[in-house]
Amino acid sequence: MEEVDSWLFLAFLACLAFSAFFSSAESAFISLPKLRIKYLVETGVKGAERLAKAVEKPERFLATVLLGNNLVNVAAATLGTIMAVAAFGVVKGPIIATLGVTASILIFGEVIPKTLAVHHAQRLSLLYSKPLRVMELCLYPLVLALGHIGLGFTRIAAQPGGKELVSEGEIRSVINVGESEGVVEQNEAKMLHKVFEFTDRAVSKIMIPRTEIAWVEEGTKLSDFLDIYARRPYSRFPVYKDNTDNVVGILSAKDVLLKLTDSGVDREAAISDFMRPAYFVPESKRLGELLAEMRDGAYHAVLVVDEFGGVAGMISLGQLTEEIVGDIGDELIGERDFVVTGDSTFQLDGGFRVEEANEELGLE
User: Which of 231, 269, 242, 238 minimizes the C-alpha distance to 252?
Assistant: First the structure.
């Protein structure tokens, strides 16, 4: 058994260290979400811009890491074999080298560094971005060639539709993780999820059905309307002519009350003098589209029509808001749609939505 030169052992340890570096860099960069990198850049974290540039071209980063890792692993295997043969001879040496070097690279060059990198992805990515850039420049010809090969195969295998963007599901997952870690409050997470559900929900799912609308007939006197308002203190009343499918406008209680502050208002005047034009939308319209239309047109309430052109219901801007922030309630209408009447017993309004009932009961 011959004595192994110390420089060979030191070189072997250096190769193991570089293997750990490349392996941890690969795991750290891959584990760090793009949204997190964008946040680091926007908040001015040192080294974040360099990190963002590195991940802009992942094919070059991967080529640098994999090329460097394979080179040092081959070097480590070569040095390990030389040392083992020198120490144990040509018969036992290769066997011991195969077992020892493989175990060393696997444990100290792969498993341990990658595990640590996953748990400290942000810190290590920021720390490694500069030395990896230097190594990319040193290995530039090989990195460039491997990068082009990788891009070529990517284009062949890529599906039509361009670069994949962040999906709704990924954003929802980030919200859930933030909630579980205490970064996002439960109410905030709930509201954010409702924003996604809001956009694709149909108007018919949340509208006030026509049977619950407070109607006012065209020609009704202001004094008579005040009696109606006293019994049903809603904010808006559709005005119809002959039948409720022939809506000619919408009367705002706020407009009427403001007019009443003027001492010259005739209480025997017809309410048609105070009404606004009605705006109609189909039942199938999505809430996201409706909100944009109501905002652009300054509509506070719209009428929903069915496939035959008849009025199916009405929806207000306040209802759209409640879909995101939750039930606001009406101080003039004291009745609640959901009331706990006893142990495991509840009283629900007939028009109460199933999803809202599940939410009140804590059911999925």
Answer: 238
Q: Do 273 and 327 fall within a single domain? A: yes
Specify if 162 maps to a domain. Answer: no
Same domain, 149 and 12: yes
CA 111 to chain centre: 32
Same domain as 137, residue 251:
no
For the record, the structure tokens of 150 come out as 């990788």
Number of structural domains the chain divides into = 3
Confidence of residue 216 (pLDDT cuts 50, 70, 90): very high
* Amino acid occupying residue 219: G
- Could you tell me the CATH number of the domain that includes residue 263? 3.10.580.10
Neighbouring CB atoms inside 10 A of 20's CB total 22
Tens-digit pLDDT profile for residues 250-301? 999 888 888 887 766 777 888 888 889 999 999 999 999 999 999 999 899 9
Token reading at 103: 């175990």
Q: What is the domain extent for residue 192?
A: 168-200
pLDDT, tens digit (0-9, with 9 covering 90-100), for 319-347:
888 888 877 665 444 455 667 666 767 77
More confidently predicted of 330 and 361: 361
Residue 168 corresponds to which tokens in the numbers above? 């709704």
